[in-house]
Amino acid sequence: MVGYFRKFSKEMNKEKPPEPLDFFIWTVEDVGLWLEEINLGSYRQIFKENGVNGEYLEGMSMFTTEQILRFIRRCHMKWGDFITLCKELRRIKGSDPLPSFALFISLFLLLLLLLLLLLLLLLLLLLLLLLHFSIGSMYFWVVLVVKTTQGYDDLLLSS
C-alpha cells in the first residue's frame, strides 16, 4: 500500500506520505489515489469533478440520509461501493484511540454503578434483617415482661 497515503504532486512524483489520521487534509488528488488503493478507482474522476477532498470525507460521518442519497446520486455510486467507501473511511479513522478509550470508560462507569447498586441492595437487606430481629427480640422481651408480671400479679393476689 505504498500509494495509499502518497501526496500527489504535479511537480514531484514522490513526497513524504501523509499520516493516516491526516486524511482530512487530503487534496482531491490524494482522495483519487486512495480510491485506487481501495479498488474504487472508477469513481476517481467523478470525485475530482465534485471536489471531494479529505475534509469532505471527514464530514460524511455527519451526513443526513438525504445528503447521503444526494452524494450517491451525484457520484453515480452503487450501494455496495458506497458501503465499501464507508468501511474504508471507518478503518482509517479507526486509528484514533479515543473511541475505544471512551467505550472503556463508559463500561467501567457502568460496572461501578452496578457495584454501587448491589452494595445499596445489600445494605437495605441488612437493615431489614436488623429490623426484623430487633422487632422479634422486642416481642420476646415484651412477652417475657408480661408473663413475669402476670406471675407477680398471681403472687400478689394470692397473698
TrEMBL record:
Family annotation (InterPro entries): SAM, SAM/pointed_sf
Pfam family, one: SAM_2
Membrane-spanning parts: 100-120, 126-146
Keywords per UniProt: Membrane, Transmembrane, Transmembrane helix
Stretches assigned to the SAM domain: 26-61
Entries under PROSITE patterns matching the protein: SAM_DOMAIN (PS50105)
Protein's recorded name: SAM domain-containing protein
Protein's organism: Linum tenue
